[in-house]
Amino acid sequence: MAATPVRIDDPADPRIAGFVSIRERDLTGRDGLFIAEGTVVLRVLGQPAALVNGFAAESILLLENRLSGVADILASFPNTVPVYVASQAVFDAVAGFNMHRGVLALGRKPPLDRTASLMDRLPEKSLVLAGCGLSNHDNVGSIFRNAAAFGADAVFLDETSCDPLYRKAIRVSVGSVLSVPFSRGLAAQVMLERLAAEGFEIWGLSPRGAVSVSAIPATRRIALVLGTEGEGLPENILSSFRTARIPQRPGLDSLNVATASGIALYQIALAMGRVG
Amino acid sequence: MAATPVRIDDPADPRIAGFVSIRERDLTGRDGLFIAEGTVVLRVLGQPAALVNGFAAESILLLENRLSGVADILASFPNTVPVYVASQAVFDAVAGFNMHRGVLALGRKPPLDRTASLMDRLPEKSLVLAGCGLSNHDNVGSIFRNAAAFGADAVFLDETSCDPLYRKAIRVSVGSVLSVPFSRGLAAQVMLERLAAEGFEIWGLSPRGAVSVSAIPATRRIALVLGTEGEGLPENILSSFRTARIPQRPGLDSLNVATASGIALYQIALAMGRVG
């Protein structure tokens, strides 16, 4: 049951202070808050999966002419989440740019270090992604989208990877950042060793990988490890774990890391019988 | 043998007029010219494949401190292509923004309608992509990058798809737009019927496809057809040709079209023995 919408006529109204200049806020990630934009992401934020992952909406801000179109989505939020509506002029004055298509929500993150608890609640048979040095928001968003499409159980990001809760990463993920469990913050080697200790076969994806991704055998638990675009996975990781490659034409720049993650996940999910 | 670099001190120098305000020029595509930015793309522009496809450099503009780093790339251009160098201040005043990393080239397109001649020179065994309504420059660039990685022989784009020679599409493709032969401009149905008449098995990629992409049989000539993100391929195309899907979890937004093209191309290239 959604809250009754409240009209806002002053861009400086303190009730919508959290939406001011969200392009800058995007760069800060402070306060444990994040911005969800667009109807697809708002819908995910209102679903049980987001709640299980510890995400909660603080408030919703809509362009007045979008209100009727998102009524069914608003119904999935408790009535303790305020819904504000504003004219185009007020909306633009608040948000500071016009890329949001008139649908914004302010969300709150759960405490950051959930690595231990997330590992504890992974199912007996698991497929997870591990990212090392993934610094591009577009790529991280795309990787989460692929993780959701192929049923990965979680994403683990090392301390040098960017926060997937940046506005643009959430948008590119079509909300999957909120529905696929993740944690972030360990050193890469520590993260992978913990996964190995939990029974995961660790497979580093690299153009120099030892076997084709189509030769990765189905096992109980698999972690697919992705490195940063360009540099790829560091030598100490490639030499510590098994490695796989995506067969491609020689002499070219390797595939984009998001596309590579999609191909490898597709192949592993097929082998594990997760899609078909 | 590269031309001797010429120093430019005036942003209004007519010799570099083609580089003025390239962000706006990006939106116009007029004059049969295009902008190549960055060392990776410049390297591709200097290779024989780009020349075979009808692309030629008109001139090169470098930030002065980048000159020595690209000497080996410059050597691949004939000395009839002028090389200009400028200070940061002049460079920024010319290009109008600072995203180009100090390496720009102005290229010239071949005449646009090469559909007939491109079809004529495809090899007996061929794998091609056909795009219908691909309007996002990032996606089109990524699709060309995938086409190159998996050895596709050509890309055909319908009249409603965007020009892959937009600056951003070339950059995202890491230059593959210049090395993978393409043509653009026919109505989708006409384009696909011509490919069918040339002996291509036409496979439309769709979340509602009849078979899994892993079940596409290797044949002499295959055309993989991609639709626009969101809407997908129109009904008249899905009902006229064979269709394949990428198995994935139900109830989600389908994969990004560029990622989907990578997965399908990977699977088809494996089946056709093009990579391994």
In short:
Chain A is 33% helix and 21% strand. Chain A is built from 12 helices and 12 strands.
Protein described:
Two copies of one chain form a homodimer. With 276 residues, chain A is of the alpha/beta class. In chain A, 33% of the residues lie in helices and 21% in strands. A seven-stranded parallel sheet of chain A has the order 8-7-6-11-9-12-10. Chain A binds chain B through residues 40, 142, 145-146, 148-151, 174, 176, 212, 214, 246-249, 252-256, 258-260, 262-263, 266, 269-270, 274-276, and chain B through 40, 142, 145-146, 148-151, 174, 176, 212, 214, 246-249, 252-256, 258-260, 262-263, 266, 269-270, 274-276.
Distance between the termini of chain A: 37 Å
Shape of chain A: elongated
Secondary-structure element pattern of chain A, one letter each: EHEHHEHEHEHEHEHHEHEEEHEH
Regions with little confidence, pLDDT below 50 for 5+ residues of chain A = none
Topology:
Two copies of one chain form a homodimer.
Chain A: E1 6-7, H1 22-28, E2 33-37, H2 39-45, H3 48-52, E3 56-63, H4 71-74, E4 83-86, H5 88-95, E5 103-108, H6 115-120, E6 126-131, H7 137-149, E7 154-158, H8 167-172, H9 176-179, E8 182-186, H10 188-197, E9 201-205, E10 211-212, E11 221-226, H11 235-240, E12 242-245, H12 257-271
Parallel strand pairs in A: 1-4, 3-4, 6-7, 6-11, 7-8, 9-11, 9-12, 10-12
Antiparallel strand pairs in A: 2-5, 3-5
List keywords for this structure.
60s Ribosomal Protein L30, Chain: A; 12 helices; elongated; 276 residues; five-stranded mixed beta sheet; 2 domains; seven-stranded parallel beta sheet; Alpha/beta knot; homodimer; alpha/beta
